[in-house]
Every structure is written in structure tokens, then in C-alpha cells.
Amino acid sequence: MTWLRSLRQTARSGLRVQRGRPEPLAALRAAGGVAVVVGLSLWLWSPAVAASSAFGAFAAGVATFQRSWRPRPALALWTGAALAVSTFLGYLAASHLVPFMILLAVWAFGAGLAWALGPTMGTVAALTVAVMLVVVTLPTTVLGALHHAALIAVGAVVQAALIWLFPVRRWGRQRDALADAFAAEAGFARRLRQDPLAEFDPAPLMAARGAAVVSPWQARRRPGELHGNRGLAERIRPVLASLADPRVGAAAEGPERDRARELLAVAADVLDAVARAIRHGTAVRVPASAREVLYAPGLYPELTGTARKSATRLIALLGAAVDRANGSGPADTDSTAHLLRPAVRELLPLALRSVRRQAEWDAPVFRHALRLSVVCAAGYLLGTALPLGHGYWAPLTSVMVMRPDFTQTFERGVARLAGTVVGVTLGSAVVSLGHPGTYASAALAVLSVWLLYLLLTTGYVVMQVCVGAYVVFLLSMAGTQLEQTVRDRLLLTLLGGALAMAAYAVFPAWETTLLRERLAEWTEAAGGYLAAVFEAYADPPHRRPRAVRQSLLELRAAGAAWDQAVTRADAEPVRHRGLSRTAVRDADAAVSALGRVGLLVEAHLPPRDAPPVPAAGELAAALRKATRAAARDIRERRAPQWEQVRAALEKWEAQLPADPADEAEPQVLRRGADLLVETLDELAEALRPRSLGRRHPAGGARGTAR
Fold first, then answer.
1. pLDDT for residue 692 is more than 50
2. Which family does it belong to (predicted)?
């Protein structure tokens, strides 16, 4: 993709307004926290102090709306503590240019590395750099530093206190995550009625698992319907796919396919009912037609063999999901243990390991930290050198728009500029026409903050419109000359955005160059998942369900990293190096089909008293070795070889009798092994040098198995 086309595409994406899920009461509560801090500061001190002290409550409120499963009060308090430290250090160094520049560069570098810990930590760390830049315009005595740092911290404490005093929809985010998982499976069931190889996006299940991780304190207080249902959702997914897939489930045409479609429609209705009940905390209202199927499972005599077994298992799982959502019935035996969040003392070594993994020259987070450090220092020097005043706005813009990847950085840069122009224009028009006083300007600023929190999920450009108006009203409250300040802000915002974009162009971290690495990791994870599933058949009495679950989680994580890399690479203005777009497309289809094979076989894992299948263990061992070698081949730009797997399968087939047994598990297992070899050949063909990269039928299965 050329630079011009890439910039045009990212600009359109940055200006896109999305449909969000607003939280009006939570937004009102967070805006109330800002109002409390501003009002107290106006009453006790001055408008200038009120304008600066509002940053703590404002930033803590933003942190509570981030995509994090930690309690909102904890997010507010941790954000307030980080902002207070940043404020105090910025105050102490602000009167001396060289020490402040060193502090700013080091602090910005640390804030960039914080992205190794996740988007929430990265966003909060960026806010700490922003507050350090803002406070440099204020008095710089040690007493003043302590005073203002305390005001910043008080704003976060106010936000946390309001959350405790006025709870809004307790466990709402966890309810939504689990409900979204069931709703996604309902949509999956409907798509399977029309396309037996329909894809399934694992993101809702991954989010539901993240939401299920709780602290011991939370575990004692979590509603019963939020515990155990996630395990049922995980088990329903492969059964749906197994029933619909004509290779191991219902026949492609005829009465069996018609009955399978009817059962899939019933499953979709039941899963939707469970999702609604979990989201709103009400009883499950199952439609009458679905109720007949749930409590009269003998309605489908046309289903035979593996399809009938899948149908029976699906009906049992749907009934268990209804009972669990209604608070009755036993908990899912595979999910009785809580997923506990590490304690605070355990977080530091985990964080250090995450940062250490990114401390490499080619790592995107490390490069982001270097860019952020240099741009903040350069932006501050340029801003102070220009005769515009408020020079910190240039680096402030840079730190808020810069992200570890090209796409988000350019999207946010365009969105911030456009949103700032619109917000400042609207705010200036209101001030110029209405001439509001100090308290009226404060009220308008709080109103802007409420709109920001309310519309936070609709897109960055909308957020910047609200921020632009908010800043104008704060400046009006403080009595600043509005015309000159607004002009300066727009020019410095443009400068900061240009610095951020130029930094990425000069010192990039392209996802395109990482595609082979991500594909190798995904292929190895898919092989590990398949091997774990086959090993469960090799020795049923000693099989470890956690091994299959853990390998599936690793497959999902690797698949998500691959999808993210492909999406970002498609928007980058560089050519694919060593991996053409055709190869990317076909390799994606082949590895997704690998995961689907494991999905189909996992749906019929044998009971512990089932006879062992030693050949499955030999196939699993060969598969692990072959996928490790294949990962090396992919990294070194060679087509992977699968002779070990093919030899293990041939040995297995030589040991089988002429007429295979009629049991469902052996049929599924043997068919899965055959599909495995076919899919491995497709992957090798996709990555063969100078391959035409023809599209394979397995492409329709993209994402289903994760």
C-alpha cells in the first residue's frame, strides 16, 4: 500500500464514529466527581487552581471507563497515585530546563514501556506524562508541589468514593462480557444453519474469560449466575460445530440436515434467552418451541451416529446453561475453581517479565517508548521556543495520540486534530455569544466532561470534540484571553500531531515484518492444541482436561496476535517482506482449518473409562515435533514439511481392521486425523516459495476453532 493510500485509509478510520454502549449513570457519577473538585477549588482557592486540579478527577474518571476487569475504585485510586507522583516530580524540576527535560524523557520512556502491561496501563501512563506537562506552568515551590499533588490525588479519591457510595449496575461489565459470549454463540448457531463451516470470532469468549478473573474478595461476592456459565459456553461451542459439520456431523443434505438446522435454531433461541437473563439479572424465558426440545430430547430420530451424539450433548448443555442462569442446578464441574487475579505483591515480578520481553530493539513497545521519549522532549523544546505560549500543548498532543502501532497513531493524530478544531470552535462560539461567568463556565466544563464520558466508546474523534470544548470552558473560567489561547492550541496541536506521525515514519515498528513470526507462533500453537486433543484419546483414564483447555487458550492468544498483525499490516505503507498477501490469505485459512479439526475432535472427547488409542498418542508426539520444525521453517522462509505426521498416520491406518468399529469416538478420531493431514498439506502449499497461493475450501473455517 502506498503512503498516500495508507494515510487516506487511516484518516477515514480515525474520523469514523462508532456505535457504542453508553453508561449514562456512570458518566453522570464520574462528571460529578469533576464537579466536586472544581467547585471546592473555586470556593477555597482560585479559578486557576480549579482548572489545574480538575485534571486528577478528570483523568481518574477516564481510567474507570477503560477496558479493564479490575474494580473501578481501584483503577481510580491507582491512577490518582500515579498522577500525584508525576505532578510532584514535575513541579520540582519545572524551574530548571535541563533537569526537567531529562525527567520528561525518562518518564515518557517508562510510560511507553507500560504498554507491555496492556492498553489500560499504557493509557494511564500516558495521562501521567500529560499531567507532568501541564503542571510546569504553575508555581514551583516544594510546598506548592505537595499541595497540587495532593489536589490531584484528592480528585481520584473523590471518584473512588462516588463509585462506592453510588454503585451503578454492580458487576455490569462482567455480566455484559458473559452475555456477549452466549449471544456470540447464538449468532454462530444461526450462521451454521446456512454455512456448516461458518467462522466463529473467539473475542467474546476471550473477554468472558478475562472478566471471570477475580480477586479473593470479589470471588466471595460474585453473583452465582456469573460463575460456571462460562465453562458451559466453552463446551457448547465445539458441539455446535460438530453437529453442523457434514464431515463428522449431520449429512450435507436430506432429513438429517433438516433436523440439524432445526436444532441449531432452537439452540440459538435458548442461547439468546440465557444472554438476556445474564445481562439483566432476570430469569431465563425460554420460548415454548425451544422448551419442548430441551425437555423432550427424543424429538429428532432422523439424527444418527455422531450427529445424534452431538445433538444429545448439545441439549444437555443448553439445559444446564438455563439452570445455571436461573441460579439452580449444579455448577459446571470444569469451572468450579475461581480464576484468581494475582495479588499486588505478585504483580511486580509479572510486570517485570512482561517489560523484559519487550526490551529488544525490534520490539514494537520498546520502539514506541523510544519514539515517545524523543518526541516529548523535542515537542517541549519546540513549543517553548515558538512565540505562541502554552508550549506544552505540542508534546501533550504527541503523548496522547502515539501508540505502539502505525495505524492507531495516525488514526488518533487525525482524529485529535479534527476533534480539537470542532470542539474548540463550538466552545469558543458558546463563550463568545453567551459570555458565561466563572461558575457558568465551570458548569459548561462539567457538562463537556459528562458528554465525554457518555460518548467515550463512540470513537476518539468524538472524545476530542468534548475535550476541546472542555479546555475552552476551563480557560474561560480562569479568565484567560480566549482568542489567542485557542489559536495557540490549534497550532500546537497540529505541531504535536505532525511530530508523532513523523516519528513513526522515521523510526517505525512495522507489523508487516513480524507476520512470519506471528504465523509461526500460531502454527505451533495450533499443533499443540491438536496434540493435546489426540493425547486425550491415547490415555482416557489419565487425560488432563486442563491440558486441552490451556492449549486452546494459547491457540486463541496466538490467533488474536496474528489477526491483529494482519489487520495492521494491511494498513501499513510497506510491502510484505517474504510473505505475499496471497500467502497470508491461504496460510490464514489453513491454520484456521487446523484449529477447526481440533475443535471437531474435542467435541467428542472420550470418557475416562473408554479404551485407550495408543496410535493417537504416537500421532500427537509426531505432530508436536513436526509443528516445532514447521515454525522454524516458516521463520526461515521455507515451506513446512509434514513427513513425520504422515508416517504416524500411515502406521495407524496399517494397524486398523478392514471394517472400523461403529463407535462414534473412533469414527470422529480417524476422520479428524485424515482432515489433519489434508490441512497440513494445504498449509505447506500456501507457504511454498513462488506458490500461486490458490484458495482452499478450508478458508471458510477461518477463526472457528479459536
1. no
2. Belongs to the YccS/YhfK family.
How far apart are the C-alpha atoms of 503 and 140, rounded to whole Å? 31
Question: Is the pLDDT score of 185 beyond 90?
Answer: yes
Please check whether residue 110 lies inside any domain of the structure: yes
Residue that terminates a domain, selected from 474, 491, 506: 506
Q: Report which DSSP code applies to 214.
A: E
Residue 668 placed within a domain: yes
| Residues contacting 38, CB < 8 A, separation 6+ | 50, 53, 54, 57, 442, 445, 446
More confident position, 337 or 4: 4
- Burial label, 412 (beta-carbon count in 10 A; 0-12, 13-18, 19+): buried
Residues 180 and 301 in one domain: yes
Crossing angle of helices 515-538 and 664-686, rounded to 10°: 160
Do 147 and 219 share a domain, yes or no? no
Q: How far apart are CA 156 and CA 268, in angstroms?
A: 43
pLDDT one-digit tens code per residue, 505-557: 889 888 888 899 999 999 999 999 999 999 998 888 888 878 898 999 999 99
Residue 479 backbone class (left: φ over 0; alpha: ψ -120 to 50; beta: rest): left
Question: Residues 221, 206: one domain?
Answer: yes
Q: Binning pLDDT at 50, 70 and 90, where does residue 662 land?
A: very low
Burial of 216 (0-12, 13-18, 19+ CB in 10 A): exposed
Same domain, 266 and 160: no
Residue 226 included in any domain: yes
Name the maximum alpha-carbon separation found in the chain: 92
Q: How many distinct helices (H) and strands (E) make up the chain? A: 27, 2
Q: How confident is the model at residue 323 (pLDDT cuts 50, 70, 90)?
A: confident
Number of other residues whose CB lies within 10 A of the CB of residue 372: 30
Q: Per residue in 102-115, pLDDT tens?
A: 999 999 999 999 99
Which of 461, 490, 506 terminates a domain? The answer is 506
Closest CA to 223 of 282, 263, 273, 276: 282
Residue 501 belongs to domain spanning: 24-168+346-506
Taking the C-alpha atoms of residue 445 and residue 442, their distance in angstroms, rounded to an integer, is: 5
Q: Which of 213-227, 514-528, 661-675 has the lowest mean pLDDT?
A: 661-675
| Same-domain pairing of 555 and 697 | yes
Q: Is residue 16 situated within a structural domain?
A: no
The tally of domains found in the chain comes to: 3
Residues ≥6 apart with Cβ < 8 Å to 143:
none
pLDDT tens, residue by residue, 580-605: 888 888 999 999 999 999 998 888 88
Q: Is there a single domain that holds both residue 495 and residue 410? A: yes
Rg (CA), the chain: 28
Same structural domain, 474 and 597: no
Is 315 found in the same domain as 265? yes
Whole-model pTM: value is: 0.86
CATH code for position 675: 1.20.58.220
Burial (CB count within 10 angstroms: exposed 0-12, middle 13-18, buried 19+), residue 2: exposed
DSSP assignment of 68-127, as one string? --S-HHHHHHHHHHHHHHHHHHHHHHTTSHHHHHHHHHHHHHHHHHGGGG-HHHHHHHHH
DSSP, collapsed to helix, strand or coil, labels residue 339 as strand
